[in-house]
């Protein structure tokens, strides 16, 4: 799913932590599930993606998140690629506070004060485009993109290591580049591991995760879990659970095949009619759709009923949450956020279990 419009090692982690993560990275054939999340003793990830705020925030924003029993938060410091260009731009003065390193650092520190664990997920935004379609004709352009993207990722991997962030995501929904430039991605993973000792994942789109060639080099299979289920205006929970069953079976088989748990690096539903359907169409037609809290609540309930207790599922991160109400694009009442909606209570109940 396309993200919304809007963003060497100077510190060594404790030797015990390094040894722990090194020991769990790669299972031998037949070892079964690689379960760094469970081994870390944190249980199922009950996470929320916190939108980078335009202005500085403090502890109050994270206190609310903690009150609904959230255990993890995800921060997304955006980088940008101009249409027709290959250079990754990030950390610019014009970017929001929460997308710059100083803002990300403050957010990490505030989250940890609340006892929240963190995934750092640097992500690329292309105006009027999508990372899944990113492609280049010349080797020169490929090299320019790969060099600048590597700098961007390693910069935040260093920050993640310095702050002992629990999980790091190396990329999101690069459908074409991950297939065309496999050696680049494998080298990037190795470079990240040389800097960062925590759990490493990648976020594949819901319809392309089976094409990713480097899961064996990662700890967790990350998927943007926007599986289209049903286009009904107000689908019942029972109907959505039925729709989830073949997907659950498919993911369980895939998890077993690769010896990795599956994490929903993103999942969520807009609070509009038919929100459990094709999200890419729903987003384009949001102005024509009615606000529908029931559909959003039912969608979250069905997802958690379907996946809770599944051995292969590591949990996930709800897309998305506006800290102190900042960072929305003018339609929070229809957007993915569960804040102040019945869906917030649904999640709070599941997060408490």
SSE layout and pairing:
Elements (H helix, E strand, L loop, with lengths): L14 H10 L11 H4 L5 E6 L8 H9 L4 E4 L2 E3 L20 H13 L3 E4 L2 E3 L13 H24 L4 E6 L4 H4 L1 H14 L3 E7 L14 E5 L12 H22 L3 E6 L11 H6 L8 H15 L5 E9 L20 H10 L2
Parallel strand pairs: 1-2, 1-10, 2-4, 3-5, 4-6, 6-7, 7-8, 8-9, 9-10
Q: H/E series, N to C?
A: HHEHEEHEEHEHHEEHEHHEH
Bin the helical content: 25-40%
Structurally, how many domains make up the residues?
Answer: 1
| Beta-strand residue fraction | 15-25%
Query: What CATH architecture label applies?
Result: Alpha-Beta Barrel
Stated plainly, the CATH topology is called TIM Barrel
The poorly predicted ranges are: 2-41
- Multimerization status: single chain
> Using DSSP, what is the number of strands?
10
Kindly state the mean pLDDT as a whole number? Answer: 89
Short account of what is shown:
This protein has helices at residues 15-24, 36-39, 59-67, 101-113, 139-162, 177-180, 182-195, 237-258, 279-284, 293-307, 342-351; strands spanning 45-50, 72-75, 78-80, 117-120, 123-125, 167-172, 199-205, 220-224, 262-267, 313-321. The protein has 353 residues and is of the alpha/beta class.
Describe the protein in words.
The structure is a single chain. With 353 residues, the protein is an alpha/beta fold. The chain has one domain (39-351): Alpha-Beta Barrel (TIM Barrel), CATH 3.20.20.80. Helix content is 37%, strand content 15%. It contains 11 helices and 10 strands. The chain has helices at residues 15-24, 36-39, 59-67, 101-113, 139-162, 177-180, 182-195, 237-258, 279-284, 293-307, 342-351, and strands at 45-50, 72-75, 78-80, 117-120, 123-125, 167-172, 199-205, 220-224, 262-267, 313-321. The chain has an 8-stranded parallel β-barrel, surrounded by 4 helices. Helix 8 crosses helix 10 (293-307). The relative contact order is 0.15.
């Amino acid at each position: 799913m396309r993200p919304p419009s809007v963003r060497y090692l100077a510190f060594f982690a404790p030797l015990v932590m390094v040894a722990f993560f090194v020991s769990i990275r790669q299972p031998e054939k037949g070892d079964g599930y690689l379960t760094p999340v469970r081994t870390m003793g944190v249980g199922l990830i009950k996470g929320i993606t916190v939108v980078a705020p335009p202005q500085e925030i403090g502890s109050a924003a994270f206190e609310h998140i903690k009150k609904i029993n959230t255990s993890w938060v995800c921060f997304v410091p955006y980088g940008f690629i101009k249409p027709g260009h290959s250079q990754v731009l990030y950390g610019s003065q014009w970017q929001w506070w929460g997308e710059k390193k100083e803002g990300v650092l403050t957010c990490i520190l505030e989250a940890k004060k609340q006892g929240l664990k963190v995934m750092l997920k640097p992500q690329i935004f292309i105006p009027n485009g999508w990372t899944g379609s990113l492609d280049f004709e010349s080797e020169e352009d490929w090299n320019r993109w790969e060099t600048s993207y590597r700098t961007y990722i390693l910069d935040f991997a260093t920050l993640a290591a310095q702050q002992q962030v629990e999980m790091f995501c190396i990329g999101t929904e690069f459908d074409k580049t991950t297939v065309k430039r496999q050696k680049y991605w494998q080298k990037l993973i190795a470079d990240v591991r040389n800097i960062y000792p925590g759990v490493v994942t990648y976020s594949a789109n819901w319809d392309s995760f089976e094409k990713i060639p480097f899961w064996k080099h990662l700890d967790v299979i990350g998927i943007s879990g926007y599986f289209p289920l049903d286009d009904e205006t107000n689908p019942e929970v029972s109907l959505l659970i039925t729709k989830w069953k073949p997907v659950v079976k498919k993911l369980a088989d895939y998890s077993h095949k690769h010896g990795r748990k599956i994490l929903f690096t993103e999942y969520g539903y807009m609070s509009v009619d038919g929100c459990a359907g094709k999200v890419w169409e729903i987003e384009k037609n949001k102005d024509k759709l009615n606000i529908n809290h029931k559909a959003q609540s039912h969608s979250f309930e069905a997802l958690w009923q379907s996946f809770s207790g599944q051995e292969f599922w590591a949990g996930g991160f709800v897309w998305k949450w506006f800290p102190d109400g900042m960072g929305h694009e003018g339609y929070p009442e229809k957007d993915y956020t569960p804040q102040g909606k019945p869906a917030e209570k649904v999640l709070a109940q599941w997060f408490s279990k």
